[in-house]
Design brief:
Layout (H helix, E strand, L loop, with lengths): L1 E4 L5 E3 L6 E4 L2 E4 L5 E3 L14 H5 L6 E4 L9
Bound molecules: FE2/S2 (inorganic) cluster.
Length: 75
């Protein structure tokens, strides 16, 4: 699994358009490709990004956070 940290922008979870996620147990269907989560703190629809990061001049480096979701092998 991976998360994409957009330079000066949100945390993006790569998901297909139409995917359903649950926010506090409530289903939310994605109307766009990928899920963008606010990391600037300025969004008016947290936890989702509403592009307010551009208005507030949010600055942060980009990157990719990846991890393996398969269970660790027994030793
Ligand atoms: S990162 Fe986009 S509104 Fe906060």
């Amino acid at each position: 699994m991976k998360l994409i940290l957009r330079e000066d922008g949100p945390i993006v979870v790569p998901l297909p358009e139409g995917s359903e996620v649950r926010l506090n147990g409530h289903p939310v269907r994605l109307t766009k490709k990928n899920l963008a989560l606010c990391r600037c703190g300025a969004s008016g629809k947290k936890p989702f990004c509403d592009k307010s990061h551009r208005r507030v001049g949010f600055k942060a480096p980009g990157g990719v956070l990846e991890w393996d979701t398969s269970p660790p092998e027994a030793v």
